[in-house]
UniProtKB/TrEMBL annotation:
Keywords: Aminoacyl-tRNA synthetase, ATP-binding, Cytoplasm, Ligase, Nucleotide-binding, Protein biosynthesis. A motif ('KMSKS' region) lies at residues 240-244. This is Glutamate--tRNA ligase. The lineage of its organism: Bacteria, Pseudomonadati, Pseudomonadota, Alphaproteobacteria, Hyphomicrobiales. It is an enzyme of class 6 (ligase). ATP binds at residue 243. Its EC number is 6.1.1.17. It is found in: Cytoplasm. InterPro entries: aa-tRNA-synth_I_cd-bd, aa-tRNA-synth_I_codon-bd_sub2, aa-tRNA-synth_I_CS, aa_tRNA-synth_I_cd-bd_sf, Glu-tRNA-ligase_bac/mito, Glu/Gln-tRNA-synth, Glu/Gln-tRNA-synth_Ib_cat-dom, GluQ/Sye. Catalyzes the attachment of glutamate to tRNA(Glu) in a two-step reaction: glutamate is first activated by ATP to form Glu-AMP and then transferred to the acceptor end of tRNA(Glu). GO terms for cellular component: cytoplasm. Belongs to the class-I aminoacyl-tRNA synthetase family. Glutamate--tRNA ligase type 1 subfamily. Residues 366-441 form the Aminoacyl-tRNA synthetase class I anticodon-binding domain.
């Protein structure tokens, strides 16, 4: 079977880490199976969907390294949903209801007061043609419910194992609103059938939807795809990410200078048994992550873990990969990259260290170290310099002055770089060269 998956966000907000998770898990699964990845924008809610959000989603996915094999928008496909609607109506599985929101609310309250579950009572099924005509003459418009068949729905989830959804304890779901617009449930099934989707990988908040949707697949004469419901990513307090909040949105993380691979790795691997560590690519993760590794418990995202992974990715990054990310920054070469790389937490930190080589730097040497620095200058070896030079030089200074440890190294660092921390002096010294070093020690 050739695998076809889809990622189906609604363009009603920007993507955040929480909804990046299914985007990436679908991608990893498609990659590991040599399958197809469809991006489907679930934009039947035309009031809340915007073109700007649709574009934003594509930009975010591209940034993460996801390039869909095909793209669809549900708003282009209403004819298909209308055909499915008509078929369900003809088969008696979709029926019109005329209760207002208030009336439904009252029914629910009454049921609760009687100690019954607040399930829709299917009163609309008893309406005669005459009743309906009367209601419509009053100006009421129907919403449409799918008639659940009341038998428990079983399926084998690739992550959660055997699942049973007891649809008998659910209200018949509304598939079409009063204004004729579709809720997500039916168009999603119609598209999954029409697009030949083999695996639906989505958050575990959809498990009961799956029960309903499996019934709809069958009512439309199709077998259901295979399902995999993953745990949801939460923030460190266990709260879900809100789309409209912009908290940890991908665009924010991008602006903050995080590496896309660090973000993608965190979104995919948090809450699994795979270690959070640098991977070369999404493909490399795809080769390792298996659904059996996804925990059944929570997936708590930790900002500090993202920051540390980001730094580790940069520390391992070769110059060819880094160079395009630093485009426009001067000077830039493999040697400088190698010197600064171990000190960067984000790629943008590179420019922060550049003044160390380009100058001018602020000489931070304390008064009482002046003589020591003069002695050090006199002991500077002749060029050519290499990574060995630092050891030879400081060895000679140590012998002459008797200083060691911090008393030896800190004044040298302050004199040469103007700061108390930063790149390893052993690799920096040959980059500075003798002339600049003499100047700074003077
Ligand atoms: N638009 C739905 C959502 O964002 C899609 C869920 C699904 O994958 O079926 O929750």
């Amino acid at each position: 079977m050739s695998v076809i998956v889809r990622y189906a966000p609604s363009p009603t907000g920007r993507l955040h880490l929480g909804n990046a998770r299914p985007a990436i898990l679908n991608w990893l699964f498609a990659k590991s199976k040599g399958g197809q990845y469809i991006l489907r924008l679930d934009d039947t809610d035309t009031a809340r969907s915007t073109e700007e959000f649709a574009q934003g989603i594509e930009t975010d996915l591209e940034w993460l390294g996801i390039t869909p094999d095909a793209k669809f928008r549900q708003s282009d496909r209403f004819a298909l949903y209308d055909a499915a609607r008509d078929r369900l109506i003809a088969d008696g599985r979709l029926y019109p209801c005329y209760e207002t929101a208030d009336e439904l609310d009252r029914k629910r309250k009454r049921a609760r007061a009687l100690g019954k579950p607040p399930i829709y009572d299917r009163a609309a099924l008893n309406l005669t043609a005459e009743d309906k005509a009367k209601l419509e003459a009053e100006g009421r418009k129907p919403h449409w419910r799918f008639k659940l068949d009341g038998r428990p729905v079983h399926f084998v989830d690739l992550i959660k194992g055997e699942q049973t959804v007891n649809t008998a304890s659910m209200s018949d779901p509304v598939l079409i609103r009063e204004d004729g617009s579709y809720l997500y449930t039916l168009p999603s099934v119609v598209d999954d059938i029409e697009m030949g989707v083999t695996h639906v990988i989505r958050g575990e908040d959809h498990v009961s939807n799956t029960g309903t949707q499996i019934e709809i697949f069958e009512a439309l004469g199709s077998s259901a795809p295979i399902f995999a419901h993953h745990n949801l990513l939460t923030d460190s307090e266990g709260q879900g990410f809100s789309k409209r909040l912009g908290s940890l949105s991908l665009s924010q993380l991008r602006e903050d200078g995080f590496e896309p691979l660090a973000v993608a790795t965190m979104a995919a691997i948090t809450g699994t048994s795979l270690p959070v560590e640098p991977y070369d690519s999404l493909e490399a993760i795809a080769g390792k992550l298996d659904f059996s590794m996804i925990s059944h418990g929570a997936a708590r995202f930790d900002t500090a873990e993202l920051a540390s992974l980001n730094a580790r990715i940069i520390h391992a990054m070769d110059f060819e990969t880094a160079a395009p990310k630093l485009a426009g920054i001067e000077p830039l070469n493999a040697e400088l990259w190698a010197v600064f790389r171990p000190n960067l937490s984000k790629i943008s930190d590179f420019s922060e260290f550049l003044p160390i080589v380009t100058g001018p730097i602020e000489n931070g040497v304390a008064e009482e170290d002046r003589d020591f620095i003069n002695t050090a200058r006199e002991l500077l070896p002749e060029e050519p310099w290499s990574e060995e030079t630092w050891g030879q030089w400081t060895g000679a200074i140590k012998e002459k002055t008797g200083r060691k440890g911090k008393a030896l190294f800190l004044p040298l660092r302050l004199a040469l770089t103007g700061r108390a921390d930063g790149p390893e002096l052993k690799s920096l010294l040959p980059v500075l060269g003798r002339k600049v070093s003499v100047d700074r020690l003077s």
